[in-house]
Specification:
Elements (H helix, E strand, L loop, with lengths): L3 E4 L17 H9 L4 E7 L14 H16 L3 E8 L19 H17 L8 E4 L14 H18 L4 E5 L1 H4 L12 E6 L3 H4 L20 E2 L2 E2 L2 H7 L1 H7 L5 E6 L7 H18 L2 E4 L18 E4 L2 E4 H9 L4
Parallel strand pairs: 1-2, 1-10, 2-3, 3-4, 4-5, 5-6, 6-9, 9-10
Antiparallel strand pairs: 7-8, 11-12
Length: about 325
């Protein structure tokens, strides 16, 4: 089955003393009602780990994951459980970590222990209902001491650890460079490879206050110049050529995140979404929009010029919703 859906942030916004959010049942009902079948839940290990003691998780917190899984299964939605912040690494505020996932054994052992624990906990859950997305958006090769070889070795260890406890679990690995770089060196691993749909960043992240790189270009699409490329549908096709080569080996490819920030003019955003989604449909790739509700979502983004209609209790960007529906292949 090809997966189409959304990212939801129930367990990613950690702060001291904060409990994970409850599943948003109304949002899940909306997704199921409109024919989506996939929910990706990024998580932060600090919800269940105190003082960086990675080997002794507070398993009471895993009860929240049980609740997410139950709510999704009741609605026929596949849950993708993603480690967004791992011991020693996160693409956002990596400076908050006291260890380095790519160079420190203690962080690597903590990473493996998390997945061993979750594999044992959910071993009885069918693969059609649950997958493990090992690590959100690893860095660029060379960043934080990470190399392609080191990354591949750690991912192979994690997959082996999961399969030792749960041989049939569906597993996902993200591309390097924030999810953008394909992983031909892991095409033999028997897992799904997860890409991203954020290029050109001058369109997808225009105005994003946490990242200055968007200032390189301008938000108009097609034709924006970013990263030395003039971006249109064919440039997007070229960008995904390495992923298509991995797919040609028989490796499934899924776009685990894509989306457009609220400051991009809506007409440009919709043209970009249209090209991106038409390619995903052509390639037979599923997708998960970041996010369901918020500045990248189908609800609440407030992009200049966007039109919203009341639908199932939400003010929905129906043009974007229709594009998402139209990109589904089955």
């Amino acid at each position: 089955m090809t997966h189409y859906g959304f990212n939801v942030q129930w367990m990613v916004a950690w702060e001291p003393g904060r409990a994970p959010a409850a599943p948003d049942l109304r949002a899940l009902d909306f997704m199921a009602r409109h024919g989506f079948n996939f929910v990706r839940v990024p998580t932060d290990y600090r919800f269940w780990t105190a003082r960086h003691d990675y080997g002794r998780p507070d398993e009471r917190i895993f009860g929240h994951l049980d609740g997410y899984l139950r709510a999704c299964r009741e609605r026929g939605l596949h849950l993708s459980l993603n480690l967004h912040r791992a011991p020693g690494y996160c693409i956002n505020r990596n400076d908050l970590e006291i260890h380095n996932l790519w160079t420190d054994d203690i962080a690597q052992q903590g990473f493996l222990h998390i997945w061993q624990t979750l594999a044992a906990r959910y071993a009885s859950v069918p693969g059609r209902d649950l997958s493990f997305d090992l690590l959100n958006e690893p860095p660029e090769p060379g960043q934080y001491g990470m190399t392609r070889g080191g990354h591949a070795h750690l991912m192979r260890r994690a997959v082996a650890a999961i399969r030792a406890a749960d041989p049939g679990r569906a597993i996902v690995i993200d591309g390097l460079g924030g999810g953008h770089l394909a992983l031909p060196e892991l095409a033999d691993l028997g897992v799904t490879h997860s890409g991203r749909g954020y290029q050109p960043m001058s369109v997808s992240h225009w105005g994003a206050d946490w990242w200055d790189g968007w200032r390189e270009g301008e938000p108009h699409y097609p034709g924006t110049r970013y990263g030395g490329v003039t971006w249109d549908r064919e440039a997007l096709r070229d960008f995904y050529a390495p992923w298509r080569e991995v797919q040609a080996t028989g490796t499934p490819v899924h776009i685990g995140e894509f989306g457009c920030y609220r400051d991009t003019p809506d007409a440009d955003a919709l043209r970009w979404f249209g090209d991106l989604l038409s390619l995903y449909r052509e390639f037979g790739w599923g997708y998960a929009l970041w996010e369901f509700q918020g500045p990248f979502g189908i609800i609440g983004h407030g992009r200049p010029g966007a039109h919203f209609e009341r639908l199932d209790g939400y003010d929905v960007d129906v043009a974007l919703l229709d594009l998402l529906k139209g990109a589904r292949t089955g």
